[in-house]
From TrEMBL:
Transmembrane segments: none annotated. SUPFAM superfamilies: Class II aaRS and biotin synthetases. GO terms for molecular function: ligase activity. Keywords: Ligase. It comes from the Bacteria. This is Biotin-(Acetyl-CoA carboxylase) ligase. Pfam families: BPL_LplA_LipB_2. InterPro entries: aa-tRNA-synth_II/BPL/LPL, BPL_LPL_catalytic. Residues 15-193 form the BPL/LPL catalytic domain. Residues 215-244 are annotated as: Disordered. It comes from Roseinatronobacter thiooxidans.
Amino acid sequence: MQTAFETEQAGAIALPPPYTLHRTDQKDVLREAVRLAPTDGAGTLVVHQSAGHLAFAVVLEPEQPLEQAQMAFLLGMVAVADALAAHCPPERSVRLNWPDELRYDKARIGGGRFEVAPNTGPQDVPDWLVFAAELIADRDHLAEPGAYPDSTSLKEEAFDPAEDIISTFASYMMLYFDRWAHDGVDAVTNRYLMRIDPPLLRGVRRIEGDRLVEVTPSSGGKRSTPLLEGLGSTGWRDATGPKL
């Protein structure tokens, strides 16, 4: 039975004017966006669609030093999560595993990646940044998908078409950058905290600088690894993409 989500044919993607679409047959959209970043600049949106894989990456040109600009990674994760939530059955949740894993109904569905222009120090304004998301589009090649209970796919969960997810992601990116500019970075990080998993039953969770802090009565506080050092620590992907 066909679902709304299909990857065999790439349809049109509705994007607002700041974006320039670049389709690629390269699965590693992060590397492709990094290649294009110095020449094509901000708003370049690299998209790869193939059986089993949906990936997209956007080039950013921040005005803040890296110390603040790195929070664009959390903004990107929120934009992906909210886009997925807008295009999935409403009774299930999209959650984030700090800092870079995306989970749907408690199963891994993908994650986010980030690249900073070379030789950028914490107080330097990066020439460019790249945020990338990789999602499991389908698991049709698996003889027994049930043997991989820790992952799921967009097709299995009856998500809307990939083009709609990408378009909504792009719109959320613009919205959250606007909120960051007018209301401060907390307007974005608070949305990230709303989706983080597992829920904190007692105490307070917040983001201080580039660290996740959990304050509980028993521990008095627990600090994570700094954001950029923590990327990849969840183990959501291997050399070929999101793990099944």
